[in-house]
Amino acid sequence: ALALGNGAVEAVCLPQGETQYSNLKDCTITGWGTLNENAPAVPQRLPRTGAIDVYEMSSCTTSSGYGIFEVTSGMTCAGRLDGRVDTCTGDSGGPLTCLENGRRVLYGITSWGKGCGRRGQPGMYTKVTKFLRWLNQFVR
């Protein structure tokens, strides 16, 4: 289920198979985390959401300066290259969903980033499609 900013909850679907992540459109991140890396953690009654873009991994591994952090094929990067929308401390485990045929589909799970909202350094997300076989064992 996905909590919406208006207090409602809706079901979220799993992807149907392999997907070209850079082709995803109308994507949103959701979380209860801080607004920036220097902000104190303040409890939120409702989660925040933000519209983001999903990028080719090559654009995130060559020029983004992730340094010693390992980037694998089970990850995708997303956010805004201008740094205006990103996940941050407290958002890990939250959903990255994209609208398809009127339904929200879970394509990513917030994982990590180098800081929060830094220009040219979008956040990293676990690729749900890499784990579909395992996930489908638990879905009825």
From TrEMBL:
Record keywords, A-Z: Disulfide bond, Hydrolase, Kinase, Protease, Secreted, Serine protease, Transferase
The answer on whether this UniProt entry bears the keyword Repeat reads no
User: Which domain of life does the UniProt lineage start with?
Assistant: Eukaryota
Record-linked InterPro entries: Peptidase_S1_PA (IPR009003), Peptidase_S1_PA_chymotrypsin (IPR043504), Serine_Proteases_S1 (IPR050127), Trypsin_dom (IPR001254), TRYPSIN_SER (IPR033116)
Q: Where does the UniProt annotation locate this protein? A: Secreted
One biological process term in Gene Ontology: proteolysis
From the Swiss-Prot or TrEMBL record, what is one GO molecular function term?
A: serine-type endopeptidase activity
Keyword Disulfide bond applies: yes
Where in the numbering of this chain does the Peptidase S1 domain appear? 1-140
Q: Which Pfam families match?
A: Trypsin
Q: Which SUPFAM superfamilies match?
A: Trypsin-like serine proteases
> Quick one: a GO cellular component term?
extracellular space
Q: Which Gene3D superfamilies does its entry note? A: Trypsin-like serine proteases
| Record family assignment | Belongs to the peptidase S1 family. CLIP subfamily.
**Listed name of the protein:** Urokinase-type plasminogen activator-like
